[in-house]
UniProtKB/TrEMBL annotation:
SUPFAM superfamilies in UniProt: FAD/NAD(P)-binding domain
Regions that span the bilayer: none
Protein name: NAD(P)/FAD-dependent oxidoreductase
InterPro entries from the UniProt entry: FAD/NAD-bd_sf (IPR036188)
Highest taxon above the source species: Bacteria
């Protein structure tokens, strides 16, 4: 019997779409080209036997805050919170520690305590209704009217470049650097509009829901979604690459793929095709995973308790690094985003660690030494702890997951112009011009993150009568 709906790709968006369609009574077929479900949620033994590494997403703040995952209410997934959500070390002073408690975080910022509470703290106090507005930029919304006023206040701050916002709102090296480290997750030049918004939102989530990991690895979350789909009568198949939509015999097709893949899979109307071709890719990443013989020897011992660590020093240093990447160059002292899973989850077979830096899209430069030098800068003797390492540049990342074109983990540049125009401007950008065909990847609103909202929106449209 032919399925009612075929979902291509099993990243968080594809999985959410498949489960929601199945819960609505549709017969769903999920097809994944890789030999493992999950896309950016996959885990594996990248270094040594028994060491569990996440190939993509590890920190699941967006998952906990997401309306899609809160609606799903999955069973069997345990979230583990590190003692410290995030840390930002320096060369010559104690690290900034971002705790679940906003006031405790502010206390560590000295004379910037009030500024943190008035900006990041205020964003966190706006709560999940604000998050819903940001993760559903085109609606539909189920929030109280007061949420729109709070969103307007957030927008007044968030629309600014991170560099401008940090200098206006904070007076200390620590406060400015902490915001820069958060904003650099955007993979944009920090002099660009809305980069302050990325920093504010991510920082506020530490206080609102925390920055947890999935106990046992992110694969556990992907497996729970596949199990839920199968329990509802859906079929899930790995090792099946869909090259053309004509291969699929289903009235509804949901694609967790990039615009570039969509263009190769279907004959699209000329106007839509031209607009897709204008969609800009984002920078790539160079990712390293390590198996260590013990914890990272941080100069500031307080950093050991952090799940996430931002390495790059001051606002000015981080902004320079991101500007270099945006200009197509490789920074000799890159901003490094590092995750210590063992700080929250000791069940992963030992001290595993991963980090990445931003590089120009499609870069072939080996950034191992640059990344490890940044870690050594704040943790002298780090290299002596390394038992094994595994490197993935843009080409390797794309080979493992075609959605990571050129190493772009964001599904396209996350700029102001492409925040809503993902991948084209439309009141419903998840709907393609092809009847019954929907796009749900991070190339659709609200963009990158393990929130599943692209899948939620595509499924919602597909279920309309």
């Amino acid at each position: 019997m032919s399925p009612d709906a075929a979902v291509v790709g099993s990243g968080p968006n594809g999985l959410v779409a498949a489960v929601l369609l199945a819960r609505a009574g549709r017969r769903v077929l999920l097809l994944e080209a890789a030999d493992q479900f999950g896309g950016g949620l996959r885990s594996g033994e990248l270094t040594l036997p028994g060491r569990v590494h996440d190939l993509g997403a590890t920190v699941m703040a967006m998952t906990l805050a997401s309306p899609a995952f809160r609606e799903l209410r999955l069973q069997g997934v345990e979230f583990a919170h590190p003692p410290v959500a995030a840390a930002h070390p320096f060369d010559d002073r104690p690290a900034v520690l971002v705790h679940r408690d906003a006031h405790r975080t502010a206390e560590g910022l000295g004379r910037d305590a009030g500024a943190w509470l008035a900006t990041v703290g205020a964003t966190a106090r706006a709560g999940l209704p604000l998050v819903e507005l940001l993760l559903k930029p085109l609606g539909p919304w189920t929030v109280p009217p007061s949420a729109f006023a709070r969103a307007a206040r957030f927008g007044a701050m968030g629309a600014l470049p991170a560099t401008t916002f940090a200098r206006r709102a904070f007076g200390t090296v620590e406060g400015r650097a902490a915001i820069a480290g958060m904003a650099a997750h955007s993979m944009l030049d920090l002099r660009s509009p809305i980069t302050a918004g990325y920093g504010l939102l991510l920082a506020s989530l530490t206080h609102l829901v925390g920055w947890p990991l999935v106990r046992g690895g992110s694969q556990v979350l992907a497996d729970a979604l596949v199990a839920e789909l199968r329990s509802l009568g859906g079929e899930a198949v790995t090792g099946h690459r869909v090259r053309r939509l004509a291969e699929l015999d289903a009235p509804t097709i949901v694609l967790d793929v990039t615009p570039r893949q969509l263009m190769s899979m279907a004959d699209l109307p000329g106007g839509y095709l031209r607009r897709l071709r204008r969609f800009r890719p984002g920078p790539g990443v160079f990712k390293l995973d390590w198996a260590l013989d013990g914890p990272v020897p941080w100069r500031d011992p307080a950093v050991a308790g952090a799940g996430t660590v931002h390495l790059g020093g001051t606002l000015e240093e981080i902004a320079l690094s991101e500007a270099e990447t945006a200009a197509g160059r490789h920074s000799p002292r890159p901003y490094v985003l590092l995750v210590q899973p063992y700080a929250a989850d000791p069940s992963r077979g030992g001290h595993t660690l991963w980090a990445y830096c931003h590089v120009p899209n499609g870069s072939a430069v080996d950034m191992t030494d640059a990344v490890e030098s940044q870690i050594e800068r704040y943790a002298p003797g780090f290299r002596d702890r390394v038992l094994a390492r595994h490197a993935m540049g843009p080409a390797v990342l794309e080979a493992a997951n075609p959605n990571l074109a050129g190493g772009d983990i964001s599904g396209g540049l996350a700029s102001l112009g492409q925040f809503v125009r993902r991948p084209v401007w439309s009141p419903a950008p998840w709907r393609t011009p092809l009847p019954g065909v929907f796009l749900c990847s991070s190339s659709t609103p609200p963009g990158p993150g393990a929130h599943g909202m692209g899948g939620w929106q595509a499924a919602r449209l597909a279920l309309r009568p």
